[in-house]
Amino acid sequence: MFRIFKVSGESMKPNFKNDHFVLTRKTKNIKENDVVVINLDHYGNILKRVSSIGQNGVMLKSDNPIYESTPTLGLHEVSKIVGKVIFKI
Amino acid sequence: MNIEIAKAHCDIPCKVYDPAIAQFGALSVVRLMDLINELEDITSVKNAAQLTRLVAQKEEHAQAVKNDVATIWGDYFKGPQIEKYPDVHSLVHNIMQAASKCKQGIDRNDGLALMTMVNDFAGMFWGSKDMEIETIVSPNLPNLDVVRPKS
Known about the structure:
The structure holds two protein chains of two kinds.
Chain A: E1 2-8, E2 21-25, E3 35-40, E4 44-54, E5 57-61, E6 75-76, E7 81-88
Antiparallel strand pairs in A: 1-2, 2-7, 3-4, 3-7, 4-5, 5-6
Chain B: E1 4-7, H1 20-38, H2 45-76, H3 79-84, H4 88-104, H5 108-128, E2 133-137, E3 145-149
Antiparallel strand pairs in B: 2-3
């Protein structure tokens, strides 16, 4: 299943800028370094890069180095991943 | 066509901030300055290579100080914390300047000044959480004072 999202925010710069559009595909083939849209309780859909993925869940990170000191976005269920980014405009 | 929003903000309230990373960076800057100043005969290839590496590391750690302090100041310090510590803005600005000076040179006093300011920043950070602080001597060279929450 394909979905299009508009990026809002700066945390994924320089690779994904505010107002970029991303095309995602629902897939179970998620691996480290993939960029995903994940739906988190209370926060909705967010765009992040996969820092690690395993049986316990997925850890996320931002691309923008200014946010390096807030890496603990937490461990999330893989099932919450809405889709993997396969194209950006 | 309905296009949804994917947020790429970093205001997800994980609320995990710690000035220890910046303190580690400042401590490393001083240590690297010491190592650079201890180098002899930089005309030898071995020492020249070592100097290059040390300078690069000094740059990296000084930049890490800037990044981490700026992030805590920008993301964590909000109304109540700023009200309690109105000098935080000028302190952070001074840290940015001091870290840049450490990137530019190898004067140990600049590194020590940076360490002092980052400790002051750590004191404000923990103080904003109403936590008591203590000053310990870092077990790592160059054994400088480090402010941390009282255990």
